[in-house]
Amino acid sequence: MESTDTRTLPATPQEVVERARMLRPVLAEDGPEIDATGCDPARNMRLLGEAGLHAINVPVEYGGLWDGPPTEAGVTSSRR
Fold this sequence. Notes:
mainly alpha
């Protein structure tokens, strides 16, 4: 996985999408085992938090990046 500065929150929705793309290989690798065995997804949740991806769920008026469905759609449908 490429290095990114995850000590800061993403500043733009596009940065959230880029960070999500960078995490995709790790999450995709862990996902099947988590689903099949019901094991704790703490590692993946920690990675999502460290990357600041939860900022996309906080409305702009409260300091987050959520500005409605277009941003959300960009994150959930990003493919590369």
